[in-house]
Design brief:
The complex is a heterodimer of chains A (about 250) and B (about 250). Chain A has about 250 residues and is mainly alpha-helical. Chain A contains eight helices and no strands. Chain B has one domain: Rossmann fold (3-Layer(aba) Sandwich). Chain B contains ten helices and ten strands.
Chain lengths: ~250, ~250
């Protein structure tokens, strides 16, 4: 059992090479990539919107609570919310949620195709299924997830504004002043690095779980769960590693 | 023509194929027959490279499939069509999209030419006009025929059929058998069919390979079946008491 983890890890790494092969037919790949981008981008926007607006709002309210009676300048609200969202909350929370939504979906789709022999049928036609089925998903994720993360950051900050200014926790100019203070563009770079890495992790891990599924519907359910759990663990691990590499 | 030499395949401790050598001829309907679980599907999957034999080799004309690289394997497969035991039609695509898929992937035809070819193939299997239905909306026999249409859309040189008439009534079975047989003749295809249907054996068994207990138990043509004295063959062909009685009374 414990050794199997290494077997799977090795297989996973070797499989990555299979994904990046020359497409048989560009227009089929193009169509499939567009479909994936639509599914991932538009399909996930509502949930990303909902989550980031509340995360921003809660951050603001809790900050107001913690700050009460301290000497911390009130305009720090905008600054704190901005940096927390950009550096950590937007990329990490968004990708953890997307691992649940997009990742489990990919694993189930691929697993179903494997079990119904669709993948074998394509292989026999001469299609390189590792490339045809995975590469469009990967490109779709690598393009759309950073966009979603960026949107999440903006929406999060808007959520914080909505929760603090109209409700009277803070003044409009306090919030805006904070938002404009101590801005470090490097943090945005860090956000995008995280978004790309997390997108790669969740897509490849979920695809691996689906593509190599065996057995029947119970195994398919288990694979879909593993897709979410493993990509969540790896995303959190990568988050830590990136934080170390890019800040220390 | 496809030749297998001394194929051995085991799953764990279970020896499924214990050294099979056979020649599948071009322009003929080659049958692999045997009891359920005798390894027909396994042999077919080895022929097409979905499973790797423990030892032995598979030759497509002069190409050795077992030692070929992934890219060479794909080149060989471009000349293959396969009908799966469970059809394996893409269930989120319409019939037309299913049949067009191999062309979309590998040919440079225009959309109009593709549509033309799809309609030709559908007509060939007597299903003209169902282009926009989904696999779940047509009957099992129709699904088989769509599977055949998809398998022949790129004019394959090798056609594989895993139990093309399991689960079908005798009449539809015969239609499908005849369809496969005439397509084989028309295009001089090497067709390999897995079956345990006696009708098929007697109708289209031009080159038969009987698997039993992991060995090649008998080989020959349909004309030889009745007169041959092989015990395994008779056990298999005349398994039903009704047929046994019939043969005895005929004698
Ligand atoms: N992937 C596999 N793993 C382990 N054993 C397998 C596998 N595939 C087939 N077998 C075993 O190989 C034997 C032959 O199976 P196969 O599917 O070839 O039978 P078959 O002749 O096609 O039967 P049927 O007529 O019922 O389709 C069976 O005993 C089966 O248990
Ligand atoms: Mg079988």
């Amino acid at each position: 059992m414990n050794l199997q983890i290494f077997t799977h890890f090795g297989k996973f790494i070797l499989w990555q090479k299979q994904i990046f092969k020359r497409p048989e037919n560009w227009s089929m790949y193009y169509k499939e990539t567009l479909r994936q981008m639509y599914d991932i981008g538009i399909g996930s926007f509502p949930i990303v919107f909902l989550i980031s607006i509340f995360i921003g709002a809660v951050t603001a309210v809790q900050f107001a609570y913690q700050m009460a009676g301290t000497l911390i300048p009130r305009y720090y609200i905008g600054y704190i919310v901005r940096d927390m969202t950009i550096i950590e909350l937007a990329p990490t929370i968004t990708c953890l949620v997307l691992a649940g939504k997009v990742g489990s979906n990919m694993a189930a789709e691929l697993g179903g195709m494997r079990q119904k022999e669709h993948i074998d049928a394509m292989e026999i036609m001469g299609v390189n299924t590792s490339t045809y089925l995975i590469l469009p998903k990967l490109i779709g994720s690598l393009v759309m997830i950073p966009v979603l993360v960026c949107a999440a950051a903006i929406i999060g900050i808007a959520g914080a504004y909505l929760a603090s200014v109209p409700t009277g926790f803070f003044m409009d100019d306090e919030f805006i002043t904070g938002l404009r203070s101590f801005f470090v563009p490097y943090n945005v770079v860090m956000m995008f690095v995280k978004a790309f890495v997390f997108a790669y992790i969740l897509t490849s891990v979920a695809s691996y779980q689906g593509y190599f599924v065996r057995g029947g519907s119970i195994e398919l359910g288990a694979a879909s769960t593993r897709a979410v759990v493993y990509s969540n663990i790896l995303i959190l691990l990568a988050d830590y590693v990136i934080a170390l590499l890019l800040t220390v | 023509m496809i030749r297998v030499e001394n194929i051995i395949k085991t799953f764990g401790k279970q020896e499924v194929l214990k050294g099979i050598s056979f020649l599948f001829e071009a322009g003929k309907t080659n049958l692999i027959i045997g009891k359920s679980g005798s390894g027909k599907t396994v042999l077919l999957k080895i022929l097409i490279g979905l499973l790797h034999p423990d030892s032995g080799s598979v030759w497509y004309e002069n190409n050795n499939l077992t030692t070929s690289t992934k890219d060479q394997l794909r080149q060989i497969r471009l000349q293959c069509g396969m009908l799966f035991q469970g059809n394996a039609l893409f269930d989120s695509m319409t019939i037309e999209e299913n049949i067009r898929f191999p062309m979309d992937m590998f040919s440079h035809k225009t959309a109009k030419e593709k549509l033309h070819r799809v309609n030709d193939c559908l007509e060939r299997v007597s299903l003209a006009g169902i282009n926009h239905k989904y696999p779940s909306e047509i009957s099992g026999g129709m699904q088989k025929r769509v599977g055949i249409a998809r398998a022949i859309v790129l004019n394959p040189k090798f056609l594989f059929c895993d139990e093309p008439n399991s689960g079908l009534d005798p009449k539809t079975s015969i239609t499908i058998d005849n369809l496969i047989s005439s397509i084989t003749k028309e295009n001089n295809i090497t067709t390999i069919i897995n079956t345990h249907d006696m009708n098929s054996v007697m109708e289209i068994g031009e080159n038969i390979c009987l698997l039993d207990n992991g060995y090649l138990a008998w080989q020959g043509q349909k004309e030889m079946v009745l007169s041959d004295q092989s015990e395994v063959l008779h056990d298999f062909i005349f398994a039903s008491p009704f047929l046994q009685k019939l043969v005895e009374s005929a004698k």
